[in-house]
Amino acid sequence: MKYKCDKCDRPATYHAVEIVKGKKIEKHLCDQHAAEDGMGIKSAHAPINELLTNFVKATGSEKPAASLDLACQDCGLSFSEFRDKSLLGCPGCYAAFEAPLSSLLERAHEGGSHHIGKTPRRGGGAGEQRQLQITRIRKRLDDAVEAEDYELAAQLRDDLSELEAGSGGGNPGSGGAA
Q1: Count of CB atoms within 10 A of residue 175's CB?
Q2: Based on CB atoms within 10 Å of each CB, which residue in 6, 97, 106, 138 is the most buried?
Q3: pLDDT beyond 50 at 173
Q4: 67-90 confidence digits (pLDDT tens)
Q5: What Å distances lie between residue 105 and 24, 45, 93, CA to CA?
Q6: Which residue has the higher pLDDT, 113 or 168?
């Protein structure tokens, strides 16, 4: 289905769908009106650094002047240089630019500024359960050593080694109660 530009009669080459306050808003624009509206990325597979550059420049105009004066102690990169290049110079830049970067990340990631991670769907949380089991066995091992129950400690040590190796085939509770 061919669309015409929402602002003129030329064929629409840019199409965008936004959800604002639960309402779907569709935009169909020609090249000229898309550029005016800030949708000027032509390639469907634009490099991530180009997308980040456009994002930083689009959202960076509201930054206070104080954040532009920031510079990394390790590599000397200033925040304004980061905004121009969209590349950080070293790991120290994350700490040096923490405040302005976190606000950028929050806007880009719908309020989140820290990576939490995911549990694979196919694992069903098995990795998390395994880590919890390892923690419990370590606690039992410490208790067994403290109580000088070296037989139980040896069994728990073996179970722990097997579990940490990834086989998970052993029965961590086979050593009896602590």
Answers
A1: 21
A2: 97
A3: no
A4: 557 888 888 888 888 877 778 888
A5: 24, 21, 15
A6: 113
- Residue 91 CA to residue 81 CA, distance in Å, equals 16
If you write DSSP's letter for every residue of 104-172 in order, what string do you get? HHHHHTTT--S------GGGTTHHHHHHHHHHHHHHHHHHHHHTT-HHHHHHHHHHHHHHHTT---S-T
Say how far apart CA 28 and CA 168 lie, in whole Å: 55
Residue 172: pLDDT band (50, 70, 90) is very low
pLDDT digits (tens, 9 = 90+) for 1-42: 678 888 898 888 888 888 888 888 888 888 888 888 777 555
CA angle centred on 16, ends 13 and 22, rounded to 5° = 160
- DSSP summary character for residue 48: H
CA separation for the pair 16, 50 (Å, rounded): 19
